[in-house]
Amino acid sequence: MTKRALITGITGQDGMYLAELLHEKGYDVFGLVAGQNNPKADLLRVTHPYVEIISGNLLDLVSLIRAVAHAKPDEVYNLGAISFVAYSWENARLTSDVTGGGVLNILEAVRFFQDSSGRDVRFYQASSSEMFGKVQEVPQTEKTLLWPRSPYGVAKVYGHYMTINYRESYGMHASSGVLFNHESPRRGPEFVTRKVSQAVARITLGLQDQIALGNLDAKRDWGFAGDYVEAMWLMLQHDHADDYVISTGETHSIRELLDIAFDEIGISDWSERVHIDPAFMRPAEVDELIGDSTKARETLGWRPKVGFDELVRMMVRHDVDDQSKRAAGAQ
Ligand code: GDR
What we know:
Layout: E1 4-8, H1 13-24, E2 28-33, H2 39-47, E3 52-55, H3 61-71, E4 75-78, H4 85-90, H5 92-117, E5 122-128, H6 151-170, E6 173-179, E7 182-183, H7 192-204, E8 211-213, E9 219-220, E10 223-224, H8 225-237, E11 243-246, E12 252-253, H9 254-264, E13 274-276, H10 294-299, H11 308-330
Parallel strand pairs: 1-2, 1-4, 2-3, 4-5, 5-6, 6-11, 7-10, 8-13
Antiparallel strand pairs: 9-12
Helix pairs in contact: 1-8, 3-5, 5-6, 7-9, 7-11, 9-11
The structure holds guanosine-5'-diphosphate-rhamnose.
Residues 83, 85-86, 128-130, 180-181, 190-192, 195, 213-215, 218, 220, 254, 280, 282, 285-286 line the site of guanosine-5'-diphosphate-rhamnose (GDR).
């Protein structure tokens, strides 16, 4: 029997990689897309024509009940969220509703479908290392006390515990992946890795002189998104639902990110190319994230394949190519 999967957040970086992975494995893939005339849906129809798009919104429980009833999924991956941490201070209510409350809505829709159809559905929740916030231990594991530092982080904690609660209350096969930062050439340009790779590409092409950034001392455990979606899938193939930290176990500062990105275009001293803009500083910062993914490595057999240096160079090379095409097209 062909397996069926429903992905919320299908138009995001992870949604696209996951759709490709599931399609390669022979799944029928359904993707939830919000909004009327969403331009991202048009793009998805071109890049991922095998995905059946279903209209729905994480804020609208009835739309989710209908989406799940239509997809009849064996697996549901809840990747949909307002995901930009900085935005969440300005839009705390909306972030709480979508990123937190949306998890409850999709869990309810899945539970309703299971009860009414008698079918079993496996559920994945995209939890986040932002839940560790003001870290209480280094490195962070599944047992580390959560101390979120942003409205986004707080909303993710709500979704995380709601997923655990549905597993424990109703016996649902509901797993939560505590994913550390994961990047790729598909990353949105508001996130620091892509912001840097795009700016560095434009600098080498003479299209831009400088890049404005916030806190250069923040440290993150950055992996490759393509590796991380495999962990999501592995969680749902395991007999027992559980929570897993997904990370590389290495941490790097924004300065190190800049070192590698500029090195890729032959610049060793980038001090004249970067200026600090307080607009990109956050009201509260998460200083040192580094994950211990031993449990996922031992239980699921998962491990990251792409290292930090390779990841940053891949993104810069992609953006040099992309920006040159754009510049040529504009002439
Ligand atoms: P993050 O990613 O908040 O960790 O969340 P982001 O790339 O936005 O920030 C990483 C760190 O870089 C510092 N920083 C800047 N960040 C941005 N965006 N722009 C800047 O100019 C800049 N200068 C410095 C930030 O202060 C921060 O410390 C991502 C998201 O994908 C979440 O949805 C996800 O849950 C987590 O990763 C894991």
